[in-house]
Amino acid sequence: MYRNHNCGELNLKSVGEEVMLAGWVQRIRNLGEIQFVDLRDEKGITQLVFSGEMKDAFAEVNPETVISITGKVRERSNKNPKMPTGDIEIEVSNLEILGKCKSSLPFEINSEKIDIENVKEDLRLQYRYLDLRNDKIHNNILLRSSIMKSLRKYMDELGFIEIQTPILANSSPEGARDYLVPSRLHAGKFYALPQAPQQFKQLLMVSGFDKYYQIAPCFRDEDPRADRAPGEFYQLDFEMSFATQEDVFAVMENVLPKVFKEHSSWKVDEGPFVRITYNEAMEKYGIDKPDLRNPLIIQDATELFANTEFNAFKCKTIKAIIVPNGAEQGRKFFDQMSEFAVNELGAKGLAWVKVDEDNNLNGGISKFVTDEIKTEIGAKAGDSIFFVADELKTAQKIAGQVRIELGKRLDLLQKDVFKFCWIVDFPMYEYNEDEEKIDFSHNPFSMPQGGLDVLNNKDALDILAYQYDLVCNGYELSSGAVRNHNPETMVKAFEIAGYTEEDVKTKFGALYTAFQYGTPPHAGCAPGLDRMVMLIANSSNIREVIAFPKNKKARDVMMDSPSVVTDEQLEEVHIKATEIEE
């Protein structure tokens, strides 16, 4: 036995006890005849005292060495109220070195000397096993485990059953690139790692299971972002038979507020969550994942400038953002916002005007803005107004990013709160200008609003789908849909996107065939676990809540993955590497 107590549980009631502790040496303070050592394990820190012969025995020990000690608990003379064990210390009588540590570390761990976030990320990821000893990162992983337990508990309470679906699956067009796995037994054929358990969970509904869930691994060959893990991620995937959109919303509005409240002290929105149509989101927020902590709203001012003499606004869509009390900002602020719009967003410019304390317009493009325009959009004395002019979609997008940046720079976001909203009524299709064809805009397995009738009789770009996203604090937390469970409707939906019935049979053969044998209406959703933990941990980097993440280039620098394999290995799976990265 190496320990009979952990490093976070001893207190004054333990004084006089003979105890055994084990852990990592975090800090060493040499005071001549006496040496004080902070010993750390996952549960906390306890101060050790080495004196006499024990001080000499400890002389060769470096920080982060793993040791086991025996000693007597005594009351500290200089108590530390910031530590749970700050009233006591251990006078060490026996020391055993369990795992030596080098004298120099790649970076400091749990030290006051350095802020871990300022260490180069690739260095941290290369030595991730050391990085995970850092309190902040370590606690994130413990938090993740606790959140997973909560999710399972609440889904179980609602009558869902956990079922695992395959990892080696088939390739299907679900919006991202597949990770392909060559088959040794079937030459020239490939498995694909699932982008989501989409087809399997729908087949479970055909199989007669009422409510399925799993915390599912998903694999997509996408470019990394701060809020998206490259390569692989996890989601709480669930599906319900005989369910409508409202039934799915009820589950999410039951489970997520409980999980967020259980693991955070922030205020959490209760259900029912705010619902915003996709078109409204694009008009008011310029993005389909609006952060409702930001009070700024985008307005359409196109008609108000119909007769403008300002050339930059002619024949353009005009979007306006009023910033309450924004007139108090100096010229430098407006110039910096204009530079941001042009340099970061690719805007042609960012127009602005101030409303002074006498309710007069000045600065920027004030000579082109009338009092009538100011009144119509609701600007008051002390406000400032920003204008974006471009084609509709571009103007929406740029105005949306300007709104976000204004919220950050002016510190407008509501603090310590989780604001949820549903984005609903997504368009079923969009026009792909690069390929000059109609594409699915969201999940291809979704039910169109109106079913087969609208697919046959309505313009494709006007068709809405029973698709929905759940957004929290500006992050897309979840996507879901009512599924298209009718084979005739399914074939027609894919036909509009350029697929033949034979394509559907080939790519989705299991679903297509299964739907011929009696399929209940079904719907589901899949909140992202990684993003959920990131939000609750109040982190802006998703890699901080994943034990062994890839870096920004989708590489595992600790395991040197991806890596070159031998020609023999390639030959076994019947493929050749035509190009190898230097």
Task: Give an overview in words.
The chain is of the alpha+beta class and 582 residues long. The protein has 16 helices and 24 strands. It has helices at 53-57, 121-126, 128-131, 135-157, 198-206, 245-263, 278-284, 331-344, 371-377, 392-409, 451-457, 487-496, 501-507, 509-514, 529-536, 567-572, and strands at residues 18-30, 34-41, 44-51, 66-75, 88-99, 161-162, 179-182, 190-193, 211-220, 231-241, 267-268, 274-277, 298-300, 317-323, 351-355, 361-362, 384-390, 417-418, 420-424, 429-432, 437-440, 467-472, 475-482, 522-527. The protein has an eight-stranded mixed beta sheet with strand order 6-9-10-24-23-22-19-12, sandwiched between helices. The chain has a five-stranded mixed beta barrel with strand order 1-2-3-5-4. The longest helix has 23 residues, at 135-157.
Secondary structure blueprint with pairings:
Layout: E1 18-30, E2 34-41, E3 44-51, H1 53-57, E4 66-75, E5 88-99, H2 121-126, H3 128-131, H4 135-157, E6 161-162, E7 179-182, E8 190-193, H5 198-206, E9 211-220, E10 231-241, H6 245-263, E11 267-268, E12 274-277, H7 278-284, E13 298-300, E14 317-323, H8 331-344, E15 351-355, E16 361-362, H9 371-377, E17 384-390, H10 392-409, E18 417-418, E19 420-424, E20 429-432, E21 437-440, H11 451-457, E22 467-472, E23 475-482, H12 487-496, H13 501-507, H14 509-514, E24 522-527, H15 529-536, H16 567-572
Parallel strand pairs: 3-5, 6-9, 11-18, 12-19
Antiparallel strand pairs: 1-2, 1-4, 2-3, 4-5, 7-8, 9-10, 10-24, 13-14, 14-17, 15-16, 15-17, 19-22, 20-21, 22-23, 23-24
